[in-house]
Design a protein that fits this description.
12-stranded antiparallel β-barrel, 7% helix
């Protein structure tokens, strides 16, 4: 909980930085449709021949990232839409399985009606999250000699644990949007409906206990929650050709354990080399006690190809 509050404080600090940078700007918001986006392909490889004495395992990894925004403004009406997709794989020469390093599909949509020519809007938001491919748990299994019973080695065994729409999250509800511009906004929704979808074959295994799989009860494929959510977005330039994007989602369920705040924070640091080459660092942390009572952390660092989806801008 304290870490959730700390992450929120960091995000609000980023907002304050951007607000200070933009405080002298009085530009009128652009009308009509505005779009922006990036496509990046990151690749990493390490190779060692048999004579290499320093140790190491040959491996290769690749990550694809897509971020696309489509926003609309007409008078006092605003409608912001964001599509995020990440997928990555890695393969070590000494393993039979290719493992995922990254897997996310997320769609956000927020519509707002401006309140008295201010930065505040009455709003309604929809958020959808899932993943593209199966996820596995990996365990080392001992190999024994059938004659002596001695352990002679190990093998890796994997068990499917997640897949597309298992879990899947859908949130929606009315609220209030504070929007300085397309790069700085916070949506507060005090009446948010949340559905968690899973494949019921994960909740019908022998010995299953209610809530063990993303909070869903035995034999069920959905879980309903009702609570409050805060979604924030801040993007700004640190130095020339280096931008930082911050995305934070907070959610508290009124119906159960109100004090437990779910957190999903992502920081994207993009460093442009030229029109096609870039380096990026992605940091994401998630806390959801329905999934695991600990912080989940993901980091991706790489150099690769980048293509702007709106090259005319």
């Amino acid at each position: 909980m304290k870490k959730s509050i700390l992450s929120l404080a960091l995000f609000l600090g980023a907002i304050a930085t951007v607000f200070a940078q933009d405080s002298d700007e009085n530009e009128e918001p652009k009308q009509g449709w505005q779009q922006s986006g990036d496509f990046s392909l990151l690749f990493n490889q390490a190779a060692f021949n048999e004579e290499w004495q320093g140790g190491g395992t040959s491996n290769y990894a690749g990550n694809v990232n897509i971020s696309y925004s489509l926003n609309y403004r007409k008078g006092d009406f605003t409608w912001d839409n964001t599509f995020l997709a990440d997928f990555g794989l890695t393969k070590n020469d000494n393993e039979n399985f290719t493992r995922k390093t990254n897997d996310r599909l997320e769609i956000n949509s927020v519509a707002g009606k401006q309140i008295n020519e201010s930065n505040w809007f009455y709003s309604f938001f929809v958020n959808f999250k899932t993943q593209f491919q199966e996820g596995y748990e990996y365990n080392d299994i001992e190999i024994t000699d059938p004659l002596t019973g001695d352990v002679i080695g190990t093998r890796v065994e994997r068990t499917e644990y997640t897949k597309f729409m298992s879990p899947g999250y859908l949130q929606f509800g009315p609220g209030f949007l504070w929007k300085k511009n397309d790069n700085l906004k916070v949506n507060i929704a005090p009446a948010t409906a949340r559905f968690i979808f899973v494949d019921d074959r994960f909740t019908t295994v022998p010995g299953y206990v209610d809530g063990d799989y993303f909070g869903v009860d035995r034999g069920e494929s959905t879980r309903f929650e009702f609570g409050a959510s805060i979604n924030g977005y801040a993007k700004f330039t640190l130095v020339e050709n280096v931008t930082m994007e911050n995305i934070i989602n907070l959610y508290s369920n009124y119906l159960e354990d109100l004090q437990n705040v779910d957190l999903d924070y992502t920081m994207n640091l993009n460093m442009k080399v030229n029109s096609f080459l870039s380096a990026s660092f992605i940091f994401q942390t998630i806390y959801d006690d329905n999934a695991v009572r600990a912080f989940q952390v993901r980091e991706v660092l790489g150099v690769g190809l980048t293509y702007k989806l709106n090259p005319e801008e």
